[in-house]
Give the backbone structure.
Amino acid sequence: MSEWQEVTLRDFINVKHGYAFKGDTITTEETSKILVTPGNFYIGGGFKSDRFKYFKGDCPSDYVLNANDIVITMTDLSKEGDTLGYGAKIPRSKGKVYLHNQRIGLVEILNNGIDKDYLHWLLRTPEYQGFVLGAATGTSVRHTSPTTIRQYTFLIPPLPEQKAIAAVLSSLDDKIDLLHRQNQTLETMAETLFRQWFIEEAKEDWKEVTIGDFVELNRASIDKNYSYKTIYYLDTGSLTNGIIESFQSLNSDEAPSRAKRLVQHNDVLISTVRPDQKHYGIIKNPIENLVVSTGFCVLTCTKIDPHFIYLLLTNGEMTDYLHSIAEGSTSTYPSLKPSDIGAIVFSLPPTDRLKEFSIIANTSWKKIERNHIQIRTLEKLRDTLLPKLMSGEVRVSA
């Protein structure tokens, strides 16, 4: 490793602050102009494209981001600073404009001594994250600064090896992205079929029923007989649009008070707080000590296919309806009661059509789950290789 040199980020980059967009220009209603916020970063880095805030108005041209621009989170609202300082690349997206919000820093490369893709991965290493967190300011809201980020010191290999390291890590990320897009396609096909069969082709003589007639709400919770000393905990923020981002491994006696709800295969989860944030999904083959937050309503589908209920509860119109109910609550945050979900009325299709749909949906979700398993395997490999490659513990041929 004699050819590796100790350098500091200030030798290679500047970090530009974003624009303070006014509150009345920010909306949750979809437009072509997307504000990049800390919510668009995965824990560990990388761009999350399922949680957007939108801008209405004229775009300030100096703050329009380009595809493959590297951005950094400068503020993190969680006390732990889960994504603070991490990097991500702006994706290519036809017809969408990404805007540089004030809580985001834009990385500007000063010279060609560092490969852009290598820099992207450097900003996702645990060592870099530890440095940023160690120097962060604030308590309830954690902050970093361009000056702090540019002080990070690290070992850098020659440019050809930088490119080789980045190629290995990017190839894994590309495969993960492909699997995510396959899953999105499979779910979109199921949504399209659901809409055609059960909304567009619905018959007037179909009987009106409620969700509560076909499911059990919050069937099981931890009690004094619960035997596991360690749990895997899923909170509402870690499940979005059907994708589980992460579990927390906790000692049961140290778990948060909301870690109470027990689940089984094919249970449907939907967050009762701020339904418009789309924290919902279907649990597949859970481990025995999985516990989910009481912030979820857990629907156990005893008399009907769970994918039917999932698609019924998560289409755009239903999300808007549920959010309107939540906004009428007297709670601190817009929230639902489980009984609100159980009381939802729908037209019950014929049994043979439901069975036909169940076969198709189950086939699709089996493929989705296989892809999720492969995604988790590739993510684990990527995250294991990342610090080893970036430190020189594992070498690749240039």
Summary: Residues 163 and 253 are 47 Å apart (CA to CA). The first helix runs from residue 116 to 122. The chain has a mean pLDDT of 89. The two ends are 13 Å apart (CA to CA).
